[in-house]
Every structure is written in structure tokens, then in C-alpha cells.
Write a structure and sequence with these properties.
single chain, 224 residues, mainly beta, STM4215-like, six-stranded mixed sheet, 3 helices, 13% helix
């Protein structure tokens, strides 16, 4: 209907959001020797899908079964909704200079649409202390938001994207007998206040202008 285009704005947001939590670590205290420091892996996956991967060991051969180790984290986008309260103008455009043209050409981004992107982050641990360590490394940085600076389009300007922590809850996933795995799950719900843009068009910048002033008599422009 409107022709194909893809600015990768949502993809850039997802990558930027994931980078916020790529350095989460937990430490296990050892009675003898140095403490064990573990970096928590992060994956893009929904909670139910990830839990199934944890509860059902995968197999690489008939006789070899591999079990996912905890702690781990995952996140996924749950919804994308327009936000009319942040709309500046229905016909607003964003223009930036094209690289290598000395601003003689401009990239014009039309149809600026503010949207709220709902993102859920999940932390899965076997030990309660691991979960508490992860929570303490996340919540203090969202009071209530954390701003990400990023380009949402190729050649676009750097925008400030607030990421707001809206809720957090803790649950236990335990089913079956005593030999079954027990999983502690911490859920963080965020809203990223970002933008989507329409097609990118190249235009020429105004290099010079000529103004003709008529109708003024007996007036010296040099008079102060």
C-alpha cells in the first residue's frame, strides 16, 4: 500500500536494550579459595519458551543429554503501541546532512511517530541469592527510567530514548517430585519511549537566498 521500506528502528532498539544487561554477573562465595564469578548469559526468548528449554535437556547425540545451566536471562518485546501524547505534528519531519556532501544533500525522515515498546526481561536462577544479586544490579539504574542514546535510522540524529521500569515480581517455578528442577524467576517489565519513521527521502539544502525589499523610501539601512 505505501511501498516497502525498513529503517531498522525497532531492531536497533532491541539491540540497545539488550546491551544494558549484557554484563550482569553473580558471585558464589567459596569457603576455600577464591570466589566464583559467573556472567549471566542473555537470550532473546519469551518466558514460557525459555522455561521449556530449561526443563527439557537437549540432545546432540543419542546418548548425550545437555542441560542448560543457571543463572540465565532472556527478554522479548510484548507490544508496540502509538503514543499520541508525545506527537509533535502530524506532518513533522527530521532532516540530517548526508555524509560526504558537506550538508548539500539532506536525509528527510517523514511521519515521525512516537511509540511505546513494551519489553519484558526475565532472570532465571537456581539459588535465591543469585536472583537477589541480579535484582540489585538492575533496579537502582531505573529511577524510574534510564536513557539510551542511539540512532534509530541510518544517517539519522542521535535521540534520547527513555526506558521506564514499570513493574517487577518474583515467582518460583517448581513442579514434580523432589528430583525436578526448581527455578526462581524475576520478571521486569519496561516501556521504551521510542519513535518510528516513514520513508527516507534525499533533498537539497538551501545554500543561498535572495531578498528584494521594495516600498521603503527615505530610509538608510546604515542608520542605527
Amino acid at each position: 500500500m505505501f511501498g516497502y521500506y525498513y529503517n531498522k528502528g525497532l531492531r536497533r532498539l532491541i539491540v540497545g536494550f539488550g546491551s544494558l544487561f549484557s554484563n550482569i554477573e553473580v558471585v558464589h562465595d567459596n569457603a576455600v579459595g577464591t570466589d566464583t564469578r559467573l556472567q549471566v548469559p542473555l537470550t532473546y526468548a519469551s518466558q514460557e519458551k525459555f522455561i521449556q528449554r530449561l526443563l527439557n535437556p537437549s540432545s546432540i547425540t543419542e546418548g548425550t543429554r545437555i542441560e542448560n545451566q543457571l543463572p540465565r536471562m532472556s527478554f522479548h518485546v510484548s507490544n508496540v503501541t502509538p503514543d499520541p501524547s508525545r506527537r509533535r505534528s502530524r506532518f513533522s519531519t527530521l532532516s540530517t546532512g548526508v555524509a560526504g556532501t558537506n550538508c548539500a544533500s539532506l536525509n528527510e525522515f517523514s511521519n515521525e511517530t512516537p511509540v511505546n515498546v513494551g519489553i519484558s526481561l526475565f532472570a532465571y536462577t537456581r539459588h535465591v541469592d543469585d536472583m537477589l544479586q541480579i535484582i540489585e544490579q538492575i533496579i537502582p539504574f531505573f529511577t524510574p527510567d534510564h536513557v539510551i542514546k542511539m540512532e534509530l535510522t541510518d544517517g539519522g540524529t542521535v535521540l534520547n530514548i527513555p526506558v521506564v521500569l514499570t513493574s517487577n515480581n518474583i515467582t518460583d517455578r517448581y513442579e514434580g517430585d523432589f528430583n525436578s528442577r526448581r527455578i526462581h524467576i524475576a520478571t521486569f517489565n519496561f516501556i521504551a519511549k521510542t519513535y518510528l519513521f516513514g520513508k527516507v527521502a534525499q533533498t537539497s539544502s538551501i545554500a543561498s537566498s535572495t531578498i528584494n525589499i521594495t516600498g521603503f523610501t527615505g530610509y538608510n539601512l546604515n542608520d542605527s
